[in-house]
Predict the structure.
Amino acid sequence: MPRKIIVVTAAYGHDRIAALGGQQALLPIIANAGADGVEIRRELFNHTQLDALPELARQIADHQLEACYSAPEPLFVEDGKLNPLIPSLLLEAHQLNAKWLKLSLGHFRGSQQFSLLQQWLEKSDVALVVENDQTQCGKLAPMQRFQAASNVLNLPVTLTFDMANWLWVDESPEAAARVLAPSVSYIHVKAAVAHHYHYRAIALDDAEPRWLELLNNLPADAPRGIEFPLEGRDLTAVTRHYVNLLREE
């Protein structure tokens, strides 16, 4: 069965998306490039667009794409408790007909609230995936603790492995892959290079082969999300190039 390729709308850049008229304008580009799905980003919506999630879901279905939904919110807030927004975010993901909701880990302190999270998830038809972000909460140790606690208590939550975010928090992506791979259900494919005091994401054609070696250490059947910059005059052709590359590699 061919692996699924998801295109993250943010890959086209905030300014380009705004100029095109919003994330829905990217659907024909993504569909015509041969991708299987789209990752819709909550931070790229205004309030009016948030009210129109069912209509966006219909457009995504018309383009024969699957949807996933990413919100710039932590699973656990600063006091270690569950983010109270999670039920409403799960509802938004449901309205979008998304297969999964992606959040960052946040301030995970322990499994005390897993039963509440389990209750929230049981009321939803949307899966939850947790990503390593570019904050200290996204370092390997807390991600590993969360993975272990989830496994012990059979919490139905898996991981999104962002291949380059580890660099922002001074961790080895390869070491993270060795530890976390069994729990990874979605991969954000991204390469990055040092830039001033941080890193910046770059297109795969401009990157060293490290990204491919890393990808080969992650689950082969996990959907691959394109989150590196997609730029050029013909966005469909650029997108198709990387969709084909990642489906074959």
About this structure: Residues 235-248 form the longest helix (14 residues). The longest strand covers residues 66-76. The beta strands are 5-8, 37-41, 66-76, 100-106, 127-131, 157-162, 184-189, 191-195, 198-202, 224-226. Residues 5-248 form a domain with the TIM Barrel fold (CATH 3.20.20.150).
